[in-house]
Write a structure and sequence with these properties.
The protein is α+β, with helices and mostly antiparallel strands and 352 residues long. The chain has 2 domains: 90 residues; 238 residues, Bira Bifunctional Protein, Domain 2 (BirA Bifunctional Protein, domain 2), CATH 3.30.930. Strands 1-5-6-10-9-8-7 form a 7-stranded mixed beta sheet, sandwiched between helices. Helix 5 crosses helix 11. The termini are far apart. The structure holds 3,4-dihydroxyphenylalanine (DAH).
Length: 352
């Protein structure tokens, strides 16, 4: 066959192959097959020897042209393949800015903490210190030093979780935050100033959980001790505290009550915020809601801690944080405060 025709065929064959090539590996392979040392073009050129000088020149020139043309096409094809690859890559990496973002669950402050933090800020602004105390206490501080000796009926009111230890049953989960009164009285150095302290924290009682009872709940204890502290100080302090927390339009009243560690003892009520004092099911038609217990520190409590009751007087109070939260935010079941259902917890987002 005429070499010129062979060359033309070679060109068309490789042009076709090139146009269908999908990868640069394929292109390289075709290049070697067509133009490589042992490639088809070389095979054709080997046959030049059988031609006349004129023809050799002619065909040689043609062969060079075809080699150049094929090289150029190969280069173009390579560029085309690279470009397609880059474009595909870019397409894959495109960011759709209209897609919705990933929803992060950001925790919210627990409603009990909202209440505690609010009151802590308030009492700090009046110069109170804050001492959390410990959840594990001994019988001495939880009961004895608070004028609740063994066999005292007040122990029954606070059915306690005792912890067994080789020292006997004198370790317990505190049933109230009042033991912090005993601790501060025992350790306070009055030459440095009076006691003005609050103790927020968790307490425990052997109660069966229902809508209004929980085996764990939160209290905030308060105690103020100095010379010449009177009941007027107690009334004034609790009056502004309750108005701060429940609203300045609330009325506050005090009723006589009994606690072993205070004498006299009182309970404080605020006017019912559901019916505004008219009487409803929440306030049991009295128009008032009981919110805390308080009183003047009992001389026996001072004595047990080594503080002279003739020199010092004091008042103390105990507030239920769960009750405060439930009343202020209209929470009907105390268990909601402890089951940590996110739907419940989220309701208080932004409250403080
Ligand atoms: N500790 C009492 C209780 O858990 C609450 C209480 C009442 C605390 C009167 C006080 C107080 O400091 O003076 O029921």
């Amino acid at each position: 066959m005429n070499l010129e025709i062979k060359l033309a065929e070679l060109k068309t064959k490789f042009e076709n192959r090139l146009s269908s090539a999908k990868s640069s590996d394929e292109v390289n392979k075709f290049k070697v097959e067509a133009l490589g040392k042992k490639g088809e073009l070389t095979q054709i050129l080997k046959q030049l020897g059988s031609l006349s000088v004129e023809e050799r020149k002619e065909i040689g020139k043609k062969a060079n042209e075809i080699r150049d043309q094929l090289n150029e096409k190969i280069e173009l094809k390579r560029q085309e393949i690279t470009k397609a690859l880059v474009e595909e890559e870019i397409k894959k990496e495109t960011i759709d800015v209209t897609l919705p973002g990933v929803d992060y669950l950001v925790g919210t402050k627990h409603v009990i903490n909202i209440v505690i933090d609010d009151l802590v800020d308030f009492f700090r602004s009046m110069g109170y210190t804050v001492d959390d105390g410990t959840e594990i206490e001994d019988d001495k501080h939880n009961f004895e030093m608070l004028n609740i000796p063994q066999g005292h009926p007040a122990r029954d009111m606070q059915d306690t979780f005792f912890l067994t230890s080789d020292r006997g049953n004198d370790w317990l989960l505190r049933s109230q935050t009042s033991p912090n009164q005993a601790h501060v009285l025992e350790t306070h150095d009055f030459s440095k100033g009076p006691i003005r302290m609050i103790s927020p924290g968790r307490v425990f009682r052997r109660d069966n959980d229902d809508a209004t009872h929980s085996h764990q709940f939160y209290q905030m204890e308060g105690i103020v001790v100095d010379r010449n502290i009177t009941m007027a100080d107690l009334f004034g302090t609790l009056n502004i505290t309750l108005k701060h927390f429940f609203g300045s339009e609330r009325e506050v009243r005090f009723r006589p009550s009994y606690f072993p560690f205070t004498e006299p003892s009182v309970e404080a009520d605020v006017s019912c915020f559901f019916c505004d004092g008219e009487g409803c099911s929440i306030c049991k038609n009295t128009g008032w809601i009981e919110v805390l217990g308080a009183g003047m520190t009992h001389p026996n409590v001072f004595k047990a801690a080594g503080v002279d009751p003739d020199k010092y007087q004091g008042f103390a109070f105990g507030m239920g944080m769960d009750r405060f939260a439930m009343l202020k935010y209209g929470i009907e079941d105390i268990r909601d405060l402890y089951t940590n259902d996110v739907r419940f917890l989220e309701k208080f987002e932004g409250e403080s």
